[in-house]
Design goal:
Layout lengths: L8 H12 L11 H41 L5 H10 L6 H10 L1 H12 L1
Length: 117
Amino acid sequence: MTKTRRGYIARRRRTKIRLFASTFRGAHSRLTRTTTQQKMRALVSAHRDRGRQKRDFRRLWITRINAIIREKMVFYSYSRLIHDLYKKQLLLNRKILAQIAISNRNCLYMISNEITK
Protein backbone atom coordinates (compact mmCIF):
# COMPACT_ATOMS: atom_id res chain seq x y z
CA MET A 1 0.00 0.00 0.00
CA THR A 2 1.22 3.42 -0.84
CA LYS A 3 1.15 6.17 1.75
CA THR A 4 -1.70 8.60 1.36
CA ARG A 5 -1.01 12.23 1.87
CA ARG A 6 -3.46 13.81 4.24
CA GLY A 7 -5.04 17.14 3.49
CA TYR A 8 -4.75 20.27 5.58
CA ILE A 9 -8.45 20.86 6.26
CA ALA A 10 -8.36 19.80 9.92
CA ARG A 11 -5.17 21.75 10.57
CA ARG A 12 -6.67 24.82 8.89
CA ARG A 13 -9.78 24.53 11.09
CA ARG A 14 -7.68 24.23 14.25
CA THR A 15 -5.48 27.20 13.39
CA LYS A 16 -8.58 29.30 12.74
CA ILE A 17 -9.89 28.39 16.19
CA ARG A 18 -6.46 29.06 17.74
CA LEU A 19 -6.36 32.50 16.15
CA PHE A 20 -9.79 33.26 17.64
CA ALA A 21 -8.71 32.06 21.08
CA SER A 22 -5.19 33.48 21.00
CA THR A 23 -5.98 36.14 23.61
CA PHE A 24 -7.48 33.67 26.09
CA ARG A 25 -5.44 32.67 29.14
CA GLY A 26 -3.77 29.34 29.88
CA ALA A 27 -5.02 26.14 28.30
CA HIS A 28 -7.96 27.99 26.78
CA SER A 29 -5.61 29.31 24.12
CA ARG A 30 -3.35 26.25 23.73
CA LEU A 31 -5.34 23.02 23.82
CA THR A 32 -7.59 22.29 20.88
CA ARG A 33 -10.55 20.85 22.76
CA THR A 34 -10.68 23.61 25.35
CA THR A 35 -10.22 26.30 22.71
CA THR A 36 -13.23 25.02 20.80
CA GLN A 37 -15.28 24.95 24.01
CA GLN A 38 -14.20 28.46 24.94
CA LYS A 39 -14.92 29.72 21.43
CA MET A 40 -18.48 28.41 21.62
CA ARG A 41 -18.87 29.89 25.09
CA ALA A 42 -17.54 33.27 23.95
CA LEU A 43 -19.85 33.39 20.94
CA VAL A 44 -22.87 32.50 23.09
CA SER A 45 -21.98 35.23 25.57
CA ALA A 46 -21.49 37.77 22.79
CA HIS A 47 -24.87 36.92 21.26
CA ARG A 48 -26.64 37.12 24.62
CA ASP A 49 -24.97 40.36 25.65
CA ARG A 50 -25.81 42.18 22.43
CA GLY A 51 -29.47 42.03 23.43
CA ARG A 52 -28.64 42.85 27.04
CA GLN A 53 -26.64 45.90 25.95
CA LYS A 54 -29.63 47.29 24.05
CA ARG A 55 -31.79 46.73 27.12
CA ASP A 56 -29.29 48.40 29.47
CA PHE A 57 -28.89 51.47 27.28
CA ARG A 58 -32.65 51.88 26.99
CA ARG A 59 -32.95 51.71 30.79
CA LEU A 60 -30.17 54.31 31.13
CA TRP A 61 -31.87 56.71 28.71
CA ILE A 62 -35.22 56.34 30.47
CA THR A 63 -33.60 56.98 33.86
CA ARG A 64 -31.84 60.12 32.60
CA ILE A 65 -34.98 61.56 31.00
CA ASN A 66 -37.07 60.83 34.08
CA ALA A 67 -34.52 62.43 36.41
CA ILE A 68 -34.34 65.64 34.39
CA ILE A 69 -38.12 65.90 33.94
CA ARG A 70 -38.90 65.32 37.62
CA GLU A 71 -36.22 67.82 38.64
CA LYS A 72 -38.09 70.72 37.08
CA MET A 73 -41.75 69.75 37.26
CA VAL A 74 -43.18 68.17 40.37
CA PHE A 75 -46.25 66.43 38.93
CA TYR A 76 -44.74 65.44 35.59
CA SER A 77 -42.95 62.17 34.86
CA TYR A 78 -41.28 60.24 32.08
CA SER A 79 -44.38 58.22 31.22
CA ARG A 80 -46.50 61.37 30.84
CA LEU A 81 -43.82 62.96 28.66
CA ILE A 82 -43.70 59.96 26.32
CA HIS A 83 -47.50 59.78 26.24
CA ASP A 84 -47.74 63.47 25.31
CA LEU A 85 -45.04 63.02 22.65
CA TYR A 86 -47.09 60.29 21.01
CA LYS A 87 -50.27 62.36 21.22
CA LYS A 88 -48.56 65.30 19.47
CA GLN A 89 -46.95 62.85 16.99
CA LEU A 90 -43.41 64.05 17.71
CA LEU A 91 -40.95 61.37 16.69
CA LEU A 92 -38.13 61.76 19.19
CA ASN A 93 -36.64 58.52 20.41
CA ARG A 94 -35.31 57.97 23.90
CA LYS A 95 -31.67 58.20 22.89
CA ILE A 96 -32.11 61.66 21.39
CA LEU A 97 -34.20 62.83 24.35
CA ALA A 98 -31.50 61.63 26.77
CA GLN A 99 -28.79 63.45 24.80
CA ILE A 100 -30.89 66.63 24.84
CA ALA A 101 -31.46 66.19 28.58
CA ILE A 102 -27.74 65.95 29.28
CA SER A 103 -26.42 68.58 26.89
CA ASN A 104 -29.21 71.18 27.01
CA ARG A 105 -31.77 70.86 29.79
CA ASN A 106 -33.58 74.04 28.83
CA CYS A 107 -34.33 72.58 25.40
CA LEU A 108 -35.95 69.55 27.02
CA TYR A 109 -37.97 71.84 29.31
CA MET A 110 -39.12 73.81 26.26
CA ILE A 111 -40.17 70.61 24.48
CA SER A 112 -42.13 69.41 27.52
CA ASN A 113 -43.79 72.83 27.97
CA GLU A 114 -44.85 72.93 24.32
CA ILE A 115 -46.28 69.43 24.56
CA THR A 116 -48.29 70.07 27.73
CA LYS A 117 -50.02 73.15 26.29
